[in-house]
Amino acid sequence: MAFESKNLSVLAYSNGFTLWHYTTTDVASDVDTSAYFNEAADMLRTGDMVMANVDTDGSPAAGIFLVASSTGAGVDLADMTAIGASNTD
Fold it and tell me: Is 74 part of a structural domain of the chain?
């Protein structure tokens, strides 16, 4: 699949840093592929973080991506740091 701008929203902004939320049916390894977020290059900045819900129609996962670089034309995210990966009863 591809980036969908309607699924990207701002959670918080302060001191030049933005915390974003993104939800998608894509898996994390697709989302952190260089150029996935290029359509949002004018908004995302190096150092921003994206909280994400991924693979929402399969095996849902959640985590945080760091915007590793954003040149205004191209965006690259670091691999997702998973949140809640284990569920022991």
Answer: yes
